[in-house]
Write a structure and sequence with these properties.
Number of helices: 0
């Protein structure tokens, strides 16, 4: 396998390994606003579409338009096609597709028009009409094509992966550093502005890509893109950009794509709700605020339940009767060591719990009684650090190691 570096000329931020470059004037990538490193497989065997296909896709020969694809479950995908109309104005199309193997069939491709941007937005004025259909087929996790029939045209266009969504990479063996913000990837909207919204994708632990699918002041489709980073608790997109100039379908020419600054936007979101604030450089868009809720959840990125939704269950209760003790997991077991048996007495007990069978087993005691100690698992061994040598007092600097294979403790350097 070799690596193909795809360089896109938006002058924003690099989202993967490689270096940004700039060339030309008056045209640049819209959907292609980042630098991505795409491994190219030599094989062409059909594959099954899964969570990793939630990403931005485009044809390098048609730089300036592209797709945001969301895999919602094993059978369903949501697709946003950000492109242009026959006069060179922006157009965005949306469809819900059926997944079968390495294919996605969008039976109805929908164009949305009619609403007015900003405070005057009225969801009752949103008009939706079916304009055609799309079929996607993928060779592997990085390449494919789509064939559309819409607006009196039929074409087949190549697709190349532009980004990978955080936690949903093509290589499941690559470790991911994420504090939970990756779960925010997906579509968001303000219920009072039903008909427009945001497609958000975290591409690594620092950067996210946002596409805002909306309307202009005349009710025409309009889309805005940017790359953002987390600053002071808010996801800030300091340079949102819009485009114009290219023509739909066979008449598309990437040299006609004109990219221009639109303004800035910031998000403050959790896993299911949040807000957005924007300030445009263009007078007709002005500034404003949205109260957001999640519109879609990508498969593989489900949010954990709220505390009130957690169903606690009572399990086997014949384990240690202790408090203030550490616990650590290793090879399918949970180990607990030491602790307080009363306010004036601590313990050397050491226990193992097997969750699947709800079985407690008492193991060899710690070398001495401890409470408020710390444990860690590493290299198949369990390490016990410090703790109090007497109940709630006498802090210790001793370190012990437990070998599950021999069931024995040994002392290490304090």
């Amino acid at each position: 396998m070799h690596r193909l570096h795809l360089v896109f000329l938006c002058g924003l931020l690099a989202l993967a390994s490689g270096s940004a470059s700039a060339s030309g004037s008056g045209s640049a990538s819209a959907a292609g606003s980042v630098v991505a490193t795409v491994p190219v497989s030599q094989g062409t065997a059909p594959i099954s579409i899964g969570p990793a296909f939630s990403a931005l896709w485009f044809d390098p020969a048609r730089d300036g338009e592209g797709w945001a694809l969301e895999i919602l479950n094993a059978d369903t995908a949501l697709g946003f096609w950000f492109t242009y109309d026959e006069q060179g104005d922006q157009r965005w199309l949306i469809g819900v597709g059926t997944i079968a193997g390495n294919r996605i069939h969008f039976a109805q491709l929908v164009e949305t028009t009619g609403a007015q941007f900003g405070p005057g937005f009225d969801p009752d004025t949103v008009l939706r009409r079916d304009v055609g259909s799309v079929d996607m087929e993928f060779d592997d996790c990085h390449r494919g094509r789509f064939t559309f029939a819409a607006f009196g045209q039929q074409m087949s266009i190549d697709l190349v992966r532009l980004t990978e969504t955080l936690r949903l990479g093509c290589d499941p063996g690559v470790p991911v550093s994420d504090d939970g913000r990756g779960l925010q990837s997906g579509a968001w909207f303000d219920p009072s502005h039903n008909g427009e919204g945001f497609e958000l994708q975290w591409v690594n632990a620092e950067l996210a890509v946002l596409t805002w699918f909306t309307f202009d002041s005349q009710g025409r489709p309009y889309w805005i893109q940017g790359v953002g980073e987390l600053i002071d608790g808010r996801l800030r997109f300091a340079q949102m950009h819009a485009t114009r100039g290219a023509r739909f379908g066979a008449a598309f020419d990437p040299a006609q794509v004109q990219r221009f600054p639109w303004g800035e936007l910031s998000l403050q979101i959790g896993c299911n709700s949040g807000s957005a604030d924007y300030q445009s450089l263009l007078p007709e868009f002005g500034s404003g605020h949205f109260d957001l809720v999640r519109l879609t959840v990508l498969t593989g990125l489900q949010c954990p339940p709220a505390i009130g939704e957690i169903d606690w269950q009572a399990l086997a209760a014949n384990g240690p009767r202790l408090s203030e003790m550490p616990a650590v997991a290793l090879d399918g077991f949970i180990y607990l060591g030491g602790g307080l048996s009363s306010i004036s007495s601590n313990s050397a007990e050491f226990w193992r719990y097997q969750p699947g069978e709800q079985r407690w087993t008492r193991l060899a005691n710690l070398p001495a009684a401890r409470d408020h100690g710390m444990m860690a698992a590493h290299g198949g061994m369990i390490y016990y650090f410090g703790g109090n040598s007497r109940a709630l007092s006498g802090a210790s600097n001793l370190v012990w190691r437990f070998d599950p294979g021999t069931g024995a403790w040994s002392g290490l350097a304090p």
